[in-house]
Amino acid sequence: MSTLKDAGVGIPEIYVPDESKTTFEKWAVIAGDQFTSNHDYWKATEDFVGDSPSTLNLFLPEVYLKEVDLDKKIPQINKTMDEYLASGVLKKLPAGFMLVERETDYSPARIGLLVNLDLDQYDYSEGTTSLIQPTEKTVVERLPVRVKIRENAALDMPHILVFIDDQDERLIEDLYDNRDSFQKIYDFTLMQKGGHLRGWFIPATDPAMKTITEKFLALKAKNQPLFAMGDGNHSLAAAKNTWEAIKAKGVQDAKARWAMAEVVNINSPGIIFHPIHKVMFNVDPAQLFEELKKNLKFTVQKSCSCCIKASENPMEVGVVIKGEACTITLEGENILSAEELQNFLDKYLKAHPEASIDYIHGDADLKELASKDKAMGFLLPKISKKTFFKRLSTKGVYPRKTFSIGEAPEKRYYLESQKIK
Q: Which residues neighbour 31 within 8 Å (Cβ) at sequence distance 6 or greater?
C-alpha cells in the first residue's frame, strides 16, 4: 500500500514555544533573508523582543552577515537552541501536521499545511526530474554559510514555502473548512506589521490523515513535479547538502533527512506572483535599445510612461526611458520574455563593465528609477499560475529574479521547529 513517504512527505514532531516562558508575539520573527539592507527593521525587532526567548536568537539575519564573526556567532546560536530545549522554552507536540492561516493587509488569506519533506526526493541541480524541484536556479555560492549554521544545529526552523498544483482545491482547502475540528495552537498578531497567524494541529492519529495521504498520492500521479519551491530554496538546498554529508558517513535514515516546509496550493487566491523588473544604470539608452533590436526579435508599440504597466502577456515587456515608454512584444514559440531579456542583459553587462543592473519590485519604483539620466527600465510581465507547473516540467527552472511571492512583510515567520539531531 502506498504511503505518505511515497509522496515525499513525512509527519514531523513539531515544537512550539511554551507560553509560560515567552509570548508567540515575541517568539515569531520573519525569515532572516528579508530586509537585508534595513538595519532599522532589525533594530526595531531586537527592541521589541528584548530579553524574551525568541527565534531571533536562533538564526542570523542576513543584514549582519558581513558584520559578525561567524565562527563565534554560529556556536552561540547552536548553544541557545540546546538551552531552549533543556529549559522547557520549547514544548513538543505529538507527531502531526499544522494547518496554517496567514492574514495580511496585502492579499487574501494564505492557508498552508506544515509537513516534513524527504530530502532524498529533492534535487536542486539543473534538469532534475525529482519529486521536489527548485523553480529558480540555485546559487551554490550562497549555500556554505547556511550549511555551516545547520550542520551542528539541534533544530530546524522552517521559513520554506512549497507549491502543489491542486486545481480542484481539495487537499488544504478541505482541511481548512473543517478547522474547528482540530486543536487551535496559536492565534496572534505578528510583530512588525506581519499580519495575523493562526495554527491548528492535526495529529497523526486523526482520521483526516487517510484522506491527506490519498490526496497527496493523487497529485503525485500527475505528469509533473509534485512539489515546486515557492520560497526558501537555498535553505532547503543547505538542508540537502547537510543530509548528503551525513549519508556519506553510512547513515541511511535520520532526523536530518527531513526538512519542514509549509505546503500551499499555487491556485489559492492567497498566492500572488509579482514580476521582478529590471533597471539598467550608467548606460546610453538609445545604444542599449539598438543592441536589444540586434539580439531579440520583437515588435514595438508606443505608449505613455504613466499608463504602462506589467502585462498579462508573457511575451510583452515595457521599456521605460525618462518620460518615454513603449511595449515590445517578443517573437518566437515556447519562450519566456524574462529569460530572453535576462540572457541579453547578462551579455551586455559583460561587454559594458561600466553598466550595472538592479532588480525592482513594483511598477512605480521601476518608473521612478528609469526616469534618471543614463538609466533604462524594463517592466516584466506577470507569471501565470495556470501554466507554472507545466512550464517547470517542460522547460525547467525559471531564470533568476523572475518573480517574487507576495510583499516582503508577507514572508513566512519562524515559529515552529523540530529536532534534526
A: 159, 231, 232, 411, 412, 413, 414
| Helix (H) / strand (E) containing 307 | none
Reading the block at residue 199, the C-alpha cell is: 495554527
Question: Do the Cβ atoms of 355 and 281 come closer than 8 Å?
Answer: yes
Please, what sign has the CA dihedral across residues 92, 119, 83, 249?
Answer: positive
Render 225-261 in DSSP notation, one character per residue: -SEEEEE-HHHHHHHHHHHHHHHTTT----GGGEEEE
Q: Nearest CA to 283 among 292, 296, 275, 274?
A: 292
Class of domain 275-384: alpha beta
Mean pLDDT by 10 residues, the chain (421 residues): 92 98 98 90 98 97 92 96 97 98 95 98 91 90 89 94 92 97 98 97 97 96 92 93 94 92 96 91 96 94 71 87 89 84 94 93 85 93 88 84 86 97 84
C-alpha cell read off for 273: 506572483
Residue 372 is classified by DSSP as S
List, by residue range, all CATH 3.30.1760 domains of the chain: 275-384
